[in-house]
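Quick one: structure for this chain?
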Amino acid sequence: MSDQIDFIDTIELLPLDAWHRARGARMVEFADYHMPIQYEGIMAEHLWTREHAGLFDVSHMGQLQLSGEGLDDALEALIPADVKGLKLGAQRYSLLLDEHGGILDDLMFARWPDSIYMVVNGAVKYDDIAHLRESLPDAITINSLDDRALLALQGPKAFAVLKRHTTGKWPLDALVFMLGGPFEIAGVDAWISRSGYTGEDGFEISIPAESAEMIADLLCAEPEVKPIGLGARDSLRLEAGLPLYGHDLDPETTPVMADLGFALSKRRREEANFPGAARILAERENGPALKRVGLLIDGKQPVREGATVVDSSGTTVGKVTSGGFAPSVGAPIAMAYLPLALAAPGTPVQLSQRGKIHTGIVTAMPFIPHRYVRQPKISGVTS
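Got it. Here's what it folds into:
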């Protein structure tokens, strides 16, 4: 397509950069942005989110709006989801695949009136946009919503807090997990979906960047809410068994290897017309060479990304892609890719990190139960 992107080789600022710094956030470079890694401390912020509600600034993510004639068919040529069957307001998790079935990114997309709203990972958003523009027909328009901020309010108190401040065509109660709609927060137009990446009930809130500070102040003025940094976001998603692109997912990984088979819709599997379908469906039938699994680590010392899984002779047979201490579990946990013969829950493993051997056991994920709200939606919310 003719659209061009000016790539910026500098560290960018979030709309809330000054807001974070004023609240004592320790800032780090992540995905080409200055991001708050913590305020009070990662463990305290993690536990607060599990017990109350945390506000996360995820404005580094790419927010895209796709529109044009033939959009559903065109998008189905790039991802394995059922785009055509997506109803107004509904949201899905999917994967941007290369021609060999490798994962270029994982993403969320939702049906807006006459368009698709898509959220992609910040670290690869420019690569994703380039891939979409190169692969989609000229009739498809891709609008990068750079003038919008994205906040995530997560935790068991998130609904009660957000309900106090939202108005819309439907009550906030109408939203269940992976459903969204247009609302107003203190007079600001917002797209709100009941979703997130912590394993908790919660909401993702897309708003004009110019209103981000006002909305953040409004929500954090509630006694149940504190701002939460990138460190706790990582430990929360790890406990929830959710992979992070660039760590647990990459182009060498297929959906079956990553244990993301749910992202392959039934119709698309039957049609077998998504990128890498032959390879992916063969792995689904026969099993992949490696599979993403959860590990419970013995003792108190975490194993980190890059540690290896070794057999009794010390030969490397797998690798750890994410790891750390899990505050809600009270023990170190990790994700790793292992051969199928070692991937069954209950299988003991040995891990090598900096010359030291650790032991652990393969366990089912998530490490703690998800608390998504899935009760039947109110009639008419998607009409």
